Amino acid sequence: MNEILERLKTLNLQIENVYPVKGGNLNDTYRIESFSKKYFLKLNTAQNFPHLFEKEAKGLKALAETELFDIPEIITNGETDNDFQYLILDWIEKGDATIENWEKFGHNMAKFHQNTNEQFGWSEDNYIAIMVQPNSYKSTWVDFYSNNRILPMIKLLADKKVLKPKEIRAANRLCTELINIFPEEKPALLHGDLWNGNILTRENGDITLIDPAIYYGHREMDIALADLFGGFDDAFFKTYNEVFPLQGNFEDRKQIAQLYPLLIHAFLFEGYYIKDVQAILKKFQY
Full-prediction pTM beyond 0.90? Predict the structure, then answer.
């Protein structure tokens, strides 16, 4: 930490105090206080998760460039000589969201998803949490979701011996049926990890985004994940559907979009997430 503080001195932030804060299970996080401003500092090892914060900063910039959300300002990111990487953001004082704020957030997310691309993927691999997320471009969502999302995670869980052979076969069957599950849509710009821990309400009530795992994918991935762990007001979903309606029978296929984040959680935390994964895969066992 002392090396980090010495590095920060070169930024002329006029640091007065540094306080540990709760910021998830995967990074060390701190509030930095200067004489006139506050900042948010994230730390992790550079060796275990190469370029983690560099890629996060790129994702935040991509979100900011849409001009739809008041994304926290990136102060700086980098690495120390002692295998630490860091990211410093402007500190966000938290407030409470009204129904109107949730409606605005749903409207802006619908507009955000209308940013499109010729192919599914992203210009480089990035991270979701601390998991490397393959983003090689694919021309179809079926190809991308199968080979860049589901099957790599199934292999990791199979290597941990937490999935049975019949469940691995079921995952492969699921992938062959994706063409009949997801409606065809243009690639949409996604946050990629849209759960309630990655949204922040500012003092004025506006809801903003943090910790992106950004890529061009099927927009139902973001909406399904927002629904998976709760914390999103119904006004968000209602307004989203008014601005950019989801295609019919979304509820019938929502679990398939939720499979990827559940696979991530099953790998990182196991617990009941494995059972959730197994319940989805069971429907594809013959």
Answer: yes
